[in-house]
Amino acid sequence: MLRSNIALALVILFVFLLGCEKPFDPNIKGSDARKYVINGGVFAGDSLQRLAISQTSAISNPEYLPVSRCQVIIADDRGNSFTMTDVGNGNYLANIDQAYLLPGTAFKVEITTPDGSRLESDYDTLLPVSTLEAVYYEIEVHEGNNPDDLTQGVQFFLDMQGNSNDSRNYRWKVFETYEYHSMYAREWYYDGEVHHIVPPDSSTMYCWRTDQIAEIFTLTTSNLNENAIVSYPLHFVSNRSVRMEYGYSLLVKQYALSNAAYIYWDQMRQNSLQGGSLYETQPLAIKGNMHHLSNTDQEVLGFFGASQVVSRRIFLTNPGLNLDYNSTCSPTGLRFGVGEIDPRYYPAFLMGDAVTYYPVWLHDECVDCTLMGGVTVKPDFWPY
Amino acid sequence: MKQILLIVLMLLVLRVQADKPDQIISCHVNELTFEQFCTVIFQKSGVKVYYKSSWTADLKVSIQADSITVFDAVSRAIRGTTLQLSVWNDNLVLLPDQVLISELPEFETADQENAPTEQQSKTLTTSEERYLTGRKAEVIQTLRVGESGSQLRGKKAKILGRVLDQETGEPVFYATVFIEETQTGAVTDVNGFFTLSLKPGKYYIVFDFLGYEKKKYQLEVLSDGNFSIQLSKTVYQIEEFVVYGDRQRSMKEKDPGLDKISMRSVKELPMLMGERDILKVSTTLPGIVNVGEGNAGLNVRGGGADQNAFYINNIPIFNPTHLFGFFPAFNSDIIKDFSVYKGHIPAAFGGRLSSVFNIITRRGNRKNFTAHGGISPISANIVVEGPLKKETVSVLLSARSTYSDWILQRIKDPDIRNSKAGFYDLAGGINFDNQNTQSSIFFYHSKDRFQLADLTEYDYANSGISFNVGYNFSKTLRGEFALVGAQYAFNTIDKQEISSAYKHDYQLGNYELKADFKHQLNEKHSLDFGASMVLFKLNRGTVQPFGFQSIRKTMELGNEQGLESAIYLADSWEVMPRLTLNTGLRLGLFNPVGPKTVYTYADGFPTDIRYINDSISFGRNEVIKWYVQPDLRIALNYETDEYGAVKLAFNQMHQNLFMLNNTISVAPNTQWKLADYHLKPSQSNQFSAGVFRTIPRMGLEFSAELYYKLTKNYPEFKDGAGFLDSPQVETTVLQGEQQAAGIELFLKRSSRRLEGWLTYTYSRSLVQVNNGQQWNSINAGKTYPANFDIPHVLNMVLNYHLSRRVSVSSIITYQTGKPITYPISAYYNEGTPYFDYSDRNAYRLPNYFRIDLSLTFEGNLKKKKLIHSSLNLSLYNLTGRDNPYAAYFKVENGRIRSYQYAIIGVPVFTATWIFKIGNYASE
Question: Which of B65, B146, B262, B871 has the most crowded Cβ, counting Cβ within 10 A?
């Protein structure tokens, strides 16, 4: 992970005040040209092979524009081909027997879109992946802008040990899952009149949310003496969020990349790090390995890769942080009683105990954890 | 400062008195100082003795005589010194090595040019003489050259002259010398020498240089010979003193695309953080841009930052700035002359495509020890200078350092708070000056260190030493010889990731031997010729693991050597009275030499280690390639009239040393790399044309210049290229074509209460790297703007003298925003948004605009004082405008937000105290 905020350093080096960062309107004309974007590949170790096909959207109005009803065929260099199934929303799935997914085999994808465009990738060779030795964390304290302004948190790391035959290029995808609760069960509500639910409904009180960490993690060991790394830093979770309150699970998936795939993902990483640093390269239009066969001038974005994948999951409960976050739930006191509540918000939940309710309005986020993006189904890997 | 008692020769006062120097007095004095002795003489005879007290400081006078003439008494008193006694207006005058010409000076009459060379003065009676002298506008001293009676028979005499500073004894260079009768002239060289070729006779000769009093002499030429004169600095003791007249010549003498900055103008300009930055001042001149704060490089006429050569007394400086471009790497107080060549580059220079920044330092005061310096919140500097042996050996020492860490500790960002930064530079020299030989030893060292928290450490250093000897072989042939050793080194420690932490040292050595000759062939031809040889020794260093946990692979980037040799010949030919043609030919030869193993790559495949098909080994000192580099430099100068000139120039350059840089600005650990087996030297052809005009009545100068420059084999680096991963640079570089063109307008007003300059430049700089394939082209082979393509630049520099002690100055800069690559559309992968970017540099940042102000209070202007101080208050970026350095994009809550980042987005105020020994005008 390259921390190239030297710029920042300079900026302020001899100036008493920080160099300033402020929003501005760059007045970009933008491009109306819709380019196809492919993301996916063949990953030995995954039970299902996934591919997503979408189109670029205007910079002023970014949105996911899935392309459905494509014909998608994965072919290997040994004459086998596998058809992918459209499962909607631009996603395509295939179930390929692991017996076909052998290191050394090269794969490509051929796509025919509903408008007849033919897209094809280069072959990417499936490479064996090294062992993901360990994923672990340390509690770190980060200084803020004021020396007394300390942020405590959990910094995750990984150790990887490969052998000389393995690929020396890596990418890691990191997924976090955490448990969180809404503050109250549904017990009393008002929709013109007050109702009491007995027993209280706690079905939307306990949630689990899973996200992919947006940061791109890549590494090449080709400039290292060993095909190994220790303490490669992943992301940091501060004590200013609910994530570490109940339970936190981290899944790290390790991919072995071909040189072409490494160049692609590492450039993607560099582009995504743009932060106004001084000795930074300019962002660039990245070329993947996709081609538009029917219109060769038309660019296709994305990379179709092949790799073995290994993964490792760890679980944390209360790592010893002093949590310091604001709950999203802030009940409103009703000075003139429940009649104050605008009927638009019915049913409105109220604070109370087994006997009576109080004139305190619990907004929906106080009783429904799914509003914060989680699901109420406990993941099967959850340890308790 | 000692008071000068020197006679004012131009005094018009005539004292009527009967006393004569030849009256007989009785004189009995013992062990008197000369001053006391003169008092005695005056009391006894009424005869005054004019002299400068420093000449007779050590003199003790003992005379025992009953009857002696005043003249003889004084002669006896000065016996044993080099002083000569002359009679002037019935008083006595002492001059070193020089007898006051006793003949009557010439009148300024209409038929001056036809005046007979025979003197008539002896026939005049005393009263006639007085009468005539009294009516004269000015009394002019006569300089006599050569001996009478020599038989030149109408041939021209060759005269070698020299101009020195009266106060410090240092040579005055680039002073103009003008002969009124022939309307010809010369310019003094860096040692103050000039040559003239004149028929025997009498002429009026005028010496002029910015900051000095203009002096007019009568020159009597008898035969070949030499002489030297001293110019004194202008000290404004009267209310207003405006000199104009022959100034337009400086404009006409100007080579196309040569800019000079006078140190006086720099001293009055606004300072950033209390530093006088001559490089920053140069960016207010047309054709020189800096693409914003925090950027160390300068871009001259659309060229890259590595296309400029910086020399300080012949020592090349590879990184001319401290602290990432915020400060210049040399103390401005020691600079005597600063020239920037960007159009017609003299044949004596080579090796860089765009420009030569040539700095010549002062030689040190040859008469007195003195010191000066400045103190600001960031840094302090001091210069000490003086004679080791009066008039012949002088020494100059300069030191500058910063103490900035206390500021860093007050900065909010934790990484900065735990950082350290600092720099220092040292320079010094010893100069020997005899009549015919001038030699000097000069050294320079600058060092920077920067530690960013516990993540990265940088330090870099420029060092060099030069031995310079100048010798006059004859009146018309002068040689300058230099032996130079210079080194640039940096060291990086990167600890950001423990497993791949590394340390990298880099070193570049530059060893040069050169000889330059100047030969005044006759009055129409002046030749410059010479030879030089530079040995470059690069140790690109080893990337080594740092820390016991690092498993970084040791990567030797290798050594390389190259020899750059050149011979040149240039002729400045006055074709017709108003037409001068300057033709230069420089024949360069560049040889990369072994030991080296070179890899070759399969044809038709990318230059990539996967496609290596063979290797060639070169032994020690074996030549790897021969690059023959003929450069033609032509300049034509036509003076349309007394006040204007038209110039045309064609300039060819080659460059063999490049910077490996693919970031927006030049990083402190940017490596230099020689042209080699694969990487070809770059070559440029530049055409330029200009018109120059002065309006002396209004103190205005105006110029307009047009240029077009085409560069071949311009190196660009592949996307995402890294320079630490492989010794084979050819795998990361592509070569293409660069075109630059522009028009530069310049208006300057000087010697007024309100003075300064206004410039406007329109220029473009475009790059195309298209070698036919996707893998050997950049931006799909399409032309794109260079990172420093700044079309519109408007600069205004103003200086207003509120009074003689208070002046306000201001720099106003406007330029088009620099090119940038923006996202043009968005897409999602697994829920995360990504951007698709435009063609390279297809967009521009918002325009750049800045106003700086400075207010300088000078201490009192008394001529006789021990220390002169001044206080400078500077305000950088008065309006606090956020001039964006970069722009970037983030996705926040599903919306894309764009941010701009400004390096100095607030007004910055600094106060600096500047002191020196001596008065306002002392150096």
Answer: B146
User: Is A54 close to B897, i.e. CB distance below 8 A?
Assistant: no
Is B903 in the A-facing interface, judged by CB distances under 8 Å? yes
Q: Degrees (nearest 5) of the Cα angle A126, A131, A136?
A: 130
* Residue A200 belongs to a domain: no
Partners of B424 in the β-ladder: B401, B447
Look up residue A233 and give its two tokens. 């830093």
DSSP annotation of B3 reads: P
**CA of B501: which chain A residue's CA is closest?**
A224
Average pLDDT over residues B301-313: 92
According to CATH, where is 2.40.170.20 located in chain B? 258-917
Lowest mean pLDDT among A183-197, B97-111, B436-450, B869-883: B97-111
User: pTM score, two decimals?
Assistant: 0.76
Inter-chain CB pairs, A–B, below 8 Å? 262
Question: Which of B490, B423, B426, B516 is CA-nearest to residue B464?
Answer: B426
The reply to whether A137 falls in a domain is no
**Chain B contact set for A51 (CB, 8 A):** none
Whether chain B has a CB inside 8 Å of the CB on A365: the answer is no
Q: Domain B258-917 sits in which CATH superfamily? A: TonB-dependent receptor, beta-barrel domain (2.40.170.20)
Strands, sheet with B225-231, edge to edge from the N-terminal-most edge strand: B193-198, B157-165, B225-231
Residue A351 C-alpha, separation from nearest chain B C-alpha, in angstroms: 31
Q: Which chain A residue shows the shortest CA-CA distance from B453?
A: A9
pLDDT for res B348: 93
Residue A91 lies in a domain: yes
Calculate how close chain B gets to A80, using CA atoms only, in Å.
27
Average pLDDT taken over every residue of chain B:
82
Q: What is the CATH number of domain B1-107?
A: 3.55.50.30
Closest chain A C-alpha to B499 CA, distance in angstroms: 6
Residue span of the structural domain in which A293 resides: 31-129+256-308
CB contact under 8 A, A62 and B894: yes
Of A225, A232, A280, the CB nearest to B664: A280
pLDDT over 80 (residue B267): no
Q: Which residues of A touch B898 (CB under 8 A)?
A: 23-26
The 10s digit of each residue's pLDDT in B785-805 is 998 899 999 999 888 888 878
Residue B445 is inside which H or E element, if any? strand B437-452
Task: Kindly determine whether residue B823 and residue A62, on different chains, have CB atoms separated by under 8 Å.
Answer: no
Evaluate whether residue A244 is within a structural domain: no
pLDDT in tens, A121-162: 999 999 988 899 999 999 988 877 666 778 889 999 999 998
Question: How far separated are the first and last CA of chain B, in Å rounded?
Answer: 11
Give the three-state DSSP class for B199.
Answer: coil
Q: Does B906 touch chain A (CB under 8 A)?
A: yes
Its ipTM equals: 0.85
Cα separation, B549 vs B370, in Å, equals 55
Residues ≥6 apart with Cβ < 8 Å to B749: B698, B699, B700, B701, B755, B756, B757
Answer whether A148 touches B (CB < 8 Å): no
pLDDT tens string B594-631: 899 999 998 878 888 878 888 999 999 999 999 999 99
Domain(s) labelled CATH 3.55.50.30 in chain B stretch across 1-107
